[in-house]
Specification:
- By secondary structure, the protein is of the alpha/beta class.
- The protein folds into two domains: 65 residues, 3-Layer(aba) Sandwich (Rossmann fold); 146 residues, Rossmann fold (3-Layer(aba) Sandwich), CATH 3.40.50.
- The protein is 38% helix and 21% strand.
- Helix 3 links the parallel strand 3 and strand 4.
Length: 226
């Protein structure tokens, strides 16, 4: 997306599922993008506390979580700090797993296991989605549960995801395109945020880890992968 923005300041660019578009320098603000980029964002700092709550529900007694993030992402450090604060507010100790992908995955998972983390919360960006299977495999090797930001990650074998309905996000992106074709300027079209969220649990991954997901959490799930 940054490459597209750098290539043109006049051709409208519509994002379907951006992360932190403000921190990444794609828009001036969500309400007033101010340039040629608009669309939809799947990022929401308020979602991270919910992911920690779900992890605690899945693993009673959870006290330490590793946060995996891409150290080469300019917005990654801010996302990590927000997640760290959210975890600490719930009395969860945080293990910082800043990594280069994919080479650092096995070493950081080993470090998380040595530190006593029971699970890994992966922060979303292009690298973590690209290497989702490698993340899940490395976590499985070290007997670590995984939480991701949307269901697309679970195709790689992760345990749980909580986040926006991406199908809805892509569908609603068409409304921005329609408005631009009808004369609206991207600079004046607010970046929209998701309104629907889904909890997905991968029962196959739970079985591989020897985990029994509490029935009340299974009842809350929007989807179960078997």
């Amino acid at each position: 997306m940054k490459a597209l923005k750098a290539a043109t300041t006049t051709i409208p660019i519509v994002m379907a599922s951006s992360q932190d578009a403000v921190a990444d320098g794609l828009v001036a603000s969500l309400a007033r993008p101010g340039g040629n980029v608009t669309g939809r964002s799947v990022y929401g700092p308020e979602l991270t506390p919910k992911r920690f709550e779900l992890l605690k529900a899945a693993l009673p007694g959870l006290s330490r979580v590793g946060i995996l993030w891409n150290s080469q992402n300019p917005g990654g450090l801010n996302q990590f700090r927000e997640a760290e604060a959210a975890g600490q507010a719930l009395a969860i100790e945080i293990v910082n797993l800043n990594a280069h992908f994919p080479d650092d995955l096995d070493p950081v998972m080993a470090r998380a296991a040595r530190a006593g983390a029971a699970t890994i919360l992966t922060l979303s960006d292009s690298s973590t989605i690209t290497f989702r299977a490698e993340i899940a495999a490395a976590a499985q090797r070290h007997r670590l549960a995984t939480m991701f930001s949307n269901v697309a990650y679970l195709a790689g074998g992760g345990l749980m995801s909580y986040g926006p309905d991406l199908a809805e996000s892509f569908r609603l992106t068409a409304s921005h395109v329609d408005k631009i074709f009808k004369g609206a300027k991207p600079a004046d079209l607010p970046v929209e945020q998701p309104s629907r969220f889904e909890l997905v649990i991968n029962l196959k991954a739970a079985e591989q880890l020897g985990l029994t997901i509490p029935p009340n959490l299974l009842f809350q799930a929007d989807k179960l992968i078997e």
